[in-house]
């Protein structure tokens, strides 16, 4: 027995030494590979990561570009499809409805089923198929477009966290948001011109002209799919060279956490819904509003309607930097909501109004979404953000249809009153969030007693 035992120990010792040597050799190979690679091809070099960032930012370009097709072609869509305003706004509702229920699943599918690389390619394909199907009049496939678009945003964030760390990450998130706004801006100012050129070639407006225009817009989704393929290749290559694991979203969804959400988080949800319903439906209906109220040409109205996105593209990373440096997110959110309310109340001063709207929209996005991490524990973040996206999509779906119906029945004056009322609700929620009362949890409110939870909202 003793010789056998000694032999086994010796074998294990030799095997351990062998593994140590192999590990050392692999490390040396990786180091040599990194030393011999050019900076553009070395996954550890900043230049290569900037190249990856470029493809990362263009991942969502196609979905954001095509999302604003109805707003940029409002007059043409209503005329060519014989729609009233309520039916027109349902185009936006069809985007939101699937994500009321499915926004919880995007991160889980990327983590547990597809993986980040394959999942990004699949969701990019969803966006492309959804857009192409819509050009053929199959509006029910718009759900594929929306599911793919929302999940691509999750994939973008996952890639960003996997490739960039620390202070770089804030800048990367700001650049991704800027690219999203750039896609919307380009759409607002280009797709109408494309429609005009197609109309001149075909000799008339109508379903065919609209379909060809939207098919050309779908090429941006194809471009994003190509970026997803290239990004997947670069990420797989980096994983092979650096021997690192594939990135994960880190989302943990537990619906049972909802009952433990603090009251301050529910106020954040209210702000999110009440604010964004005064932004996106307004932009969706903005072109005809500026034509009817101010007698602008279609080109002028489209350009003015895009000012919000033009301002937001460069302002988002800059304002994000300011919010990071100064803190006090609640005060920044309060300023953003109040400025947006002022913008809606002074629509007569058009350019100033749209510029203020663009700045306040960017400021709120930078200050509101990070606040969730201040009021809930880390293990509830996935559920909190999923629930926030779900409520936002539900609010946009319902309020988009409501805005269209109000415009059909009562006109633009009542529509603006509706938007102002929503912003007043958001402002009230911000004020309540700032008060010490916001420190109580929702379960404590229901039980009639107050219990401190985490940070005071006035300290956020």
UniProtKB/TrEMBL annotation:
Keyword flag Transmembrane: yes
GO cellular component: lysosomal membrane
Pfam families noted in UniProt: MFS_1
Keywords: Lysosome, Membrane, Transmembrane, Transmembrane helix, Transport
Catalytic activity: L-histidyl-glycine(out) = L-histidyl-glycine(in); L-alpha-aminoacyl-L-histidine(out) = L-alpha-aminoacyl-L-histidine(in); L-alpha-aminoacyl-L-arginine(out) = L-alpha-aminoacyl-L-arginine(in); L-alanyl-L-lysine(out) = L-alanyl-L-lysine(in)
InterPro entries registered for this protein in UniProt: MFS, MFS_trans_sf, MFSD1
Coarse class of the protein's main subcellular location: membrane
Domain of life from the UniProt record: Eukaryota
Keyword Membrane tagged: yes
Subcellular location: Lysosome membrane
Any GO molecular function: transmembrane transporter activity
Membrane topology annotation: Multi-pass membrane protein
Transmembrane intervals: 12-34, 46-67, 87-107, 114-133, 210-234, 263-283, 303-323, 330-350, 356-376, 383-407, 413-437
The protein's assembly and partners: Homodimer. Interacts with lysosomal protein GLMP (via lumenal domain); the interaction starts while both proteins are still in the endoplasmic reticulum and is required for stabilization of MFSD1 in lysosomes but has no direct effect on its targeting to lysosomes or transporter activity.
Family statement: Belongs to the major facilitator superfamily.
Role noted for this protein: Lysosomal dipeptide uniporter that selectively exports lysine, arginine or histidine-containing dipeptides with a net positive charge from the lysosome lumen into the cytosol. Could play a role in a specific type of protein O-glycosylation indirectly regulating macrophages migration and tissue invasion. Also essential for liver homeostasis.
PANTHER family: MAJOR FACILITATOR SUPERFAMILY DOMAIN-CONTAINING PROTEIN 1
Protein name in UniProt: Lysosomal dipeptide transporter MFSD1
């Amino acid at each position: 027995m003793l010789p056998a035992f000694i032999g086994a120990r010796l074998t294990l010792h030799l095997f351990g030494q062998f593994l140590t040597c192999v590990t050392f050799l692999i490390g040396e190979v990786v180091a040599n590979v990194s030393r011999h690679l050019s900076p553009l091809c070395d996954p550890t070099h900043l230049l290569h990561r900037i190249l990856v960032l470029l493809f990362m930012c263009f991942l969502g370009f196609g979905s954001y570009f095509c999302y604003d097709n109805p707003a940029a072609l409002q007059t043409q869509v209503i005329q060519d499809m014989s729609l009233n305003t309520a039916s027109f706004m349902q185009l936006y509702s069809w985007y939101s409805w699937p994500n009321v229920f499915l926004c919880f699943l995007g991160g889980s599918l990327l983590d547990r089923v597809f993986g980040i690389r394959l999942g990004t390619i699949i969701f990019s394909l969803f966006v492309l198929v959804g857009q192409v199907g819509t050009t053929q009049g199959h509006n029910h496939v718009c759900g594929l477009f929306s599911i793919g678009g929302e999940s691509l945003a999750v994939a973008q964030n996952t890639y960003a966290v996997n490739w960039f760390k620390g202070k770089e990450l804030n800048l990367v998130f700001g650049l991704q948001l800027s690219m999203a706004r750039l896609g919307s801006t380009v759409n607002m100012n280009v797709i109408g011109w494309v429609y005009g050129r197609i109309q001149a070639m075909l000799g008339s407006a109508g379903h065919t002209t609209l379909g060809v225009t939207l098919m050309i817009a779908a090429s941006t989704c194809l471009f994003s799919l190509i970026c997803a393929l290239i990004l997947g290749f670069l990420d797989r290559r980096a994983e092979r060279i650096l021997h690192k694991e594939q990135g994960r979203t880190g989302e943990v969804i537990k619906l049972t956490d909802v009952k433990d959400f603090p009251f301050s988080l529910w106020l954040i949800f209210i702000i999110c819904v009440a604010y964004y319903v005064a932004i996106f439906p307004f932009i969706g209906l903005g072109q005809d509003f500026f034509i009817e109220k101010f007698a602008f040409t279609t080109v002028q109205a489209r350009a003015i309607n895009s000012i919000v996105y033009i301002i937001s593209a460069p302002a988002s990373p800059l304002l994000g930097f300011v919010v990071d440096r100064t803190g006090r997110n609640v005060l920044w959110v309060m300023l953003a909501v109040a400025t947006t309310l002022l913008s809606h109340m002074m629509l007569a001063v058009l350019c100033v109004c749209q510029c203020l709207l663009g700045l306040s929209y960017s400021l709120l996005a930078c200050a509101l979404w990070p606040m969730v991490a201040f009021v809930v524990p880390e293990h509830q973040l996935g559920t909190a953000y999923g629930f926030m996206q779900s409520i936002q999509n539900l609010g946009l779906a319902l309020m988009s249809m409501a805005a269209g119906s109000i415009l059909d029945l009562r006109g633009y004056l009542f529509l603006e009153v509706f938007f102002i009322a929503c912003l007043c609700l958001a402002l009230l929620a911000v004020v309540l969030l700032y008060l010490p009362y916001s420190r109580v949890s929702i379960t404590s409110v229901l039980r009639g007693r107050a219990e401190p939870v985490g940070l005071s909202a006035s300290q956020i």
